Automatic annotation (TrEMBL):
InterPro entries: KR_dom, NAD(P)-bd_dom_sf, Sc_DH/Rdtase_CS, SDR, SDR_fam. It comes from Roseomonas acroporae. Belongs to the short-chain dehydrogenases/reductases (SDR) family. Pfam families: adh_short. Signal peptide: none annotated. This is SDR family oxidoreductase. One of its GO terms (biological process) is monocarboxylic acid metabolic process. SMART domains: PKS_KR. Residues 10-204 form the Ketoreductase domain.
């Protein structure tokens, strides 16, 4: 039986939805009735998200692999159209950080972060453009007003900057600029394009780690993750709400931009940081 909710009958695509914030976004949208195309770099976490959605009674398929692959946007959009016949929501969530001060940052570090946070969303949205334009024209001819949603994930690093993150700050500021531009391009097609800029959200990328810390493998690169316990404690002390956010809370802010109540909100970047500037 299909889930009845505010997103019943909608089709949502969420990148990086095997773990962390992306997984919680996918689950939130599924609970509200959306059919999902999920994605992860690795098949195993994607399968876990698929199983969780199906356990809720929802529908989902996976389109795995790196979002930075040149053909990924086309594959992602094709998965939605072939399995569910449409596209209503696109959430560009996939990403990671690879930090260094600018004098030590390599070209590889720079381009890797720009590619995953800016180029990949650009390609996905470009791939979806033909369907969105044709669907909107058909709906307008029928006298129907149907809204679609794009939510791009930014960061407070992109709003305020952050030392050691010239690449990430630039990419996240860029995705907010892309959001504003596309809101103007796609307004005629009744597409709301917004961004959410997260502050400290507690995932495997930001959990407290001692010593040398943990790493994750991104396409053969060993990337350090985690935050030193004292640095995490200091960061949380600057948050008016007193703690980092939970992934499900982060997902809730994305959900706000996906529901009909936000149909007249577009081109905005919402800072979700517990009140921390």
């Amino acid at each position: 039986m299909a889930i009845e909710g505010k997103l019943a009958g909608k089709v949502a695509l969420v990148t990086g939805s095997g773990r962390g914030i992306g997984r919680e976004i996918a689950l939130k949208l599924a609970r509200e009735g959306a059919a999902l195309v999920i994605n992860d770099l690795d098949p195993a976490p994607a399968e876990e998200t698929l199983a969780a959605i199906r356990a809720l009674g929802g529908q989902a398929v996976a389109c795995n692999g790196s979002v930075t692959e040149a053909d990924f946007g086309d594959r992602f959009v094709k998965a939605a159209l072939e399995n569910f016949g449409g596209i209503d929501i696109i959430v560009n969530n996939a990403g990671y950080t690879w930090d260094n001060v600018i004098q030590k940052m390599t070209d590889e570090q720079w381009y890797a972060i720009i590619d995953v946070h800016m180029t990949a969303p650009f390609r996905i949205l470009r791939a979806a453009a033909d369907f969105i334009r044709e669907a909107a024209k058909k709906e307008a001819a029928e006298g129907r007003e149907v809204f679609r949603k794009v939510v791009n994930i930014s960061s407070t690093s992109g709003v305020f900057g952050n030392a050691g993150q010239a690449n990430y700050s630039a990419a996240k500021a860029g995705i907010s600029g892309m959001t504003r531009a596309l809101a103007k391009e796609w307004g005629r097609y009744k597409v709301n394009v917004n961004a959410v800029a997260f502050g400290l959200i507690m995932t495997r990328l930001t959990e407290a780690v001692a010593g040398a810390g943990a790493t994750i493998d991104i396409e053969g690169r060993e990337i350090k993750v985690g935050v030193r316990p004292e640095a995490l404690k200091n960061a949380e002390a600057t948050i008016p709400l007193g703690r980092g956010g939970r992934p499900e809370e982060a997902a809730g802010s994305v959900y706000l931009f996906c529901i009909p109540e936000s149909n007249y909100v577009t081109g905005q970047t919402l800072v979700v940081a517990g009140g921390r500037p």
